[in-house]
Amino acid sequence: ILWCGTCRGETTMSSRPEHTAPPELFYNDEEAHKYTVNTRMIQIQAELTQRCIELICLPDEPCHILDVGCGSGLSGQELSDVGHTWVGCDISGSMLNVAVEREVDGDLMQHDMGHGLPFRPGSFDGVISVSALQWLCNADKRCHDPRKRLAAFFTTLYSSMARGARAAMQFYPENPDQMEMITTYAMRAGFSGGLVVDYPNSTRAKKIFLCLVAGGVAAPLPAPKGADDGPATSASFVSAQRDRSAGKHLKRGAKKTGKEWILAKKERRRRQENKGEVRPDTKFTGRKRRPKF
After folding, report:
1. Is 209 helix (H, G, I), strand (E, B) or coil?
2. What is the rounded CA–CA span in Å between residue 253 and residue 16?
3. In sequence order, which residues have a C-beta less than 8 Å from that of residue 14 and are 6 or more positions away?
4. b/e for 101-121, b at 16 or more Cβ within 10 A?
5. Does the predicted TM-score (pTM) go above 0.90?
């Protein structure tokens, strides 16, 4: 549960945890212990998880859910309470040890999500994540490239979800550029969806959720909370893969024959240097030849 909202809502930009240390070091035994004794942290984690569950629109039956950045298992406990099975992955061994001590119902795995997710295609009916996604935007090691890590994460996340499944990931972007980078790589992986901003006019209560759909028909975004008196607080996007495939279809079907196309090509070559001599246009240019006997 990488960086709980209790801390972030009241912190300054210079004290963001991802600027302090890598997540596997920042969430040591001392920090992990707070998630068992701090009632405010537990309450906020539960509220964010419940909102994520609401945003992924699960059917009224048990589903198999992935919790990315599961930490001490607080989010997973909310999933268990509503009858779902779940798998949690987190990079912090200390946080996972707390989850084991709490005897959570889900399966746990220590894993760096920036390396991609090691699950079979179509394994999950939904995905949630609370306060974890922004860690991918930091280069904690010399070999870390945030763009490559985001690409690896979203590509493998897309394949591990059933078609039509949804993901809701609450995160704290440091700036608009970070937000744009995250949504861009989600689009390139094939997701459609967008951002939902709850309580956009409040400094402390404002929460940003990345809502994604894996394949299927792009659905409208859920309505944000606390935005009755403010401007629109959601922004949608369409899978970049769909845009590319549509472009390929148009190019494949484009007609590249005929007199007009040949004349235009010859004119382009005349404007280019070092392309050699271009034959002059005649009444025979572009004329279809008769088939040979």
Report:
1. strand
2. 51
3. none
4. eeebebebeebbbbebbebee
5. no
Please list the pLDDT of the chain residue by residue as tens digits (293 residues): 344 443 443 444 447 877 776 677 777 787 878 777 788 888 999 999 999 999 999 999 999 999 999 998 999 999 999 999 999 999 998 889 999 998 999 999 999 999 999 999 999 999 999 999 998 988 777 778 899 999 999 999 999 999 999 999 999 998 999 999 999 999 999 999 999 999 998 888 899 999 999 986 667 888 888 866 555 556 666 665 555 544 555 455 556 667 888 888 888 888 776 667 888 888 888 887 777 65
Hey, what amino acid is at 214? A
d(CA 46, CA 165): 22
Q: Strand 207-214 and strand 234-237: pairing?
A: unpaired
Q: Is the dihedral of CA 265, 268, 270, 272 positive or negative?
A: negative
DSSP 8-state secondary structure symbol assigned to residue 161: E
Q: Which phi-psi region, left, alpha or beta, contains residue 71 (left: φ > 0; alpha: ψ -120 to 50)?
A: left
Write out the DSSP string of 31-67. Answer: HHHHHHH-HHHHHHHHHHHHHHHHHTT--SS--EEEE
Are 242 and 197 contacting, i.e. CB atoms less than 8 angstroms apart?
A: no
Strands 207-214, 161-171: parallel, antiparallel or unpaired by DSSP? antiparallel
**How do 124-130 and 161-171 pair as beta strands?**
parallel
Q: What H or E segment, with its residue span, contains residue 86? A: strand 85-90
CA distance 194 to 201: 19
The conformational region for residue 104 under phi > 0 = left, psi -120 to 50 = alpha, else beta, is beta
